[in-house]
Design goal:
Shape: globular
Number of domains: 3
Order of helices and strands: EEEHEHEHEHEHEHEHEHEHHEHHE
Strand content: 15-25%
CATH topology of the largest domain: Rossmann fold
Largest sheet: 6 strands, mixed
Structural class: alpha/beta
Number of helices: 12
CATH class of the largest domain: Alpha Beta
Helix content: 25-40%
Radius of gyration: 19 Å
Distance between the termini: 44 Å
């Protein structure tokens, strides 16, 4: 049974019809959120029922937007493990540290969550052509799920994306265009051509359902921590859908009575060469100015401007969290640190969380007794 009731603007609260494909709010241009009959869910859904469900992101169906399960497009999005990082914890002087390893998902990264949901909902809405600007992993995910659904995928990404992403998109039959520029430049091409080409734009937070897939990371963490959240979550941030989604998940779980009011401190990690959220947080701003001349070898962090910047910052401020910038050299050193201590082969973006944690511990911002979760958002790519 679906409890999905309507779409609502995350800024001005204007409501929209969920049976019609929607992008941004037509009033203020901000992202739309899926809303649910949480009061009914609280009365009818008991967390004990999860013990009988498959260990996948679809186990949380009551809090997901797909109305009919026959429309689910899946490559088996299993729950990802919360790996105890005891040796790394000891190295850093911490008592309790975990790595949420998203590299186990189909297509090798956390992007599978958001695109599985977006493609499933697109299928339910009768869409057949999907377009995306991407720094790499989202393109791979969309290409794979569109192929599974029998849809056309149109990919626009910088020429210097990792070869893995370019090749996987081609293998799955996507229409790939490589551009001179950044993901924001790719996004402008999609925006300019989508109406004439008949594409539906599935850019980060420019449609309402990728964030619902990413939300399942927060639902899983809550369940894996037996409904008492950790003290700190450290997350690599480009477009920021993961932080936004987890924050939304925690709010919904509290409303239905499954968790209390305690929240983790949400920490956004960005590359020093592209850190608009860090700069905004340091100045106390509620929105981030575009970053000029963005550069970093961590392609997923090279996002000069995020449409959901105010939502990322809101989660950081409300949780008493932080935003921290890491150099590419520090990221690469952290890849070795994580691999040598825990045997986890992380992507550059995932390794950035280790570097961020190390700085925060050294600065006294994270205490030895804090329970900390790092996100490795994808697998190592040469």
């Amino acid at each position: 049974m679906s409890y999905f009731t309507h779409l609502e603007c995350s800024r001005c609260t204007e409501t929209y019809d969920p049976d019609v494909p929607q992008n941004l709010c037509t009033n203020c241009g901000k992202p739309l959120f899926a809303r649910y009959a949480l009061d009914r869910i609280a009365q009818s859904w008991d967390k004990c029922s999860l013990s009988d469900r498959e260990p996948s992101m679809w186990r949380y169906a009551e809090l997901l937007p797909v109305m009919d399960t026959q429309h689910i497009v899946s490559l088996n999005e299993s729950m990802t493990p919360l790996l105890p990082a005891q040796r790394l914890a000891a190295f850093l002087g911490l008592e309790a540290l975990w790595v949420k390893d998203e590299s186990r998902l189909p297509t090798g990264s956390f992007k599978a969550r958001g695109l599985a949901m977006a493609v499933s909902k697109a299928k339910e809405l009768g869409l057949t052509k999907l377009a995306i600007p991407s720094a790499g992993n989202a393109a791979t995910a969309l290409s794979s799920y569109a192929a599974q659904a029998g849809m056309e995928a149109y990919i626009f990404m910088p020429k210097d994306v990792p070869p893995f992403n370019r090749t996987t998109c081609q293998l799955t039959g996507a229409n790939v265009t490589l551009i001179d520029g950044l993901i924001t430049d790719a996004g402008k091409i999609v925006a300019e051509r989508k109406e004439a080409e008949g594409w539906f734009d599935v850019s980060t937070l420019k449609e309402p359902y990728r964030v619902e897939g990413k939300k399942t990371m927060g639902l899983e963490i809550a369940e894996q921590f037996n409904w008492e959240l950790p003290d700190v979550i450290i997350y690599p941030t480009g477009g920021g859908t993961g932080i936004v989604g987890m924050w939304k998940a925690f709010q919904e779980l509290e409303t239905i009575g499954w968790i209390g009011g305690k929240r983790p401190r949400m920490v956004s990690v960005q590359a020093a060469g592209c850190a608009p959220i860090v700069r905004a947080w340091q100045s106390g701003a509620t929105e981030a100015e575009p970053w000029v001349n963005a550069h970093t070898s961590a392609a997923g962090l090279r996002v000069p401007q995020a449409v959901g910047d105010f939502l990322i910052l809101e989660a950081i401020y409300q949780s008493g969290g932080a935003a921290i910038a890491i150099t590419d050299d520090e990221i690469r050193e952290a890849m070795t640190t994580l691999g040598a201590h825990e045997g986890i082969l992380a992507c550059l973006e995932g390794a950035a969380t280790v570097a961020g944690l190390r700085k925060l511990v050294a600065a006294g911002e994270i205490q030895p007794e804090d329970r900390v979760v790092l996100f490795n958002t994808g697998g190592y790519q040469a």
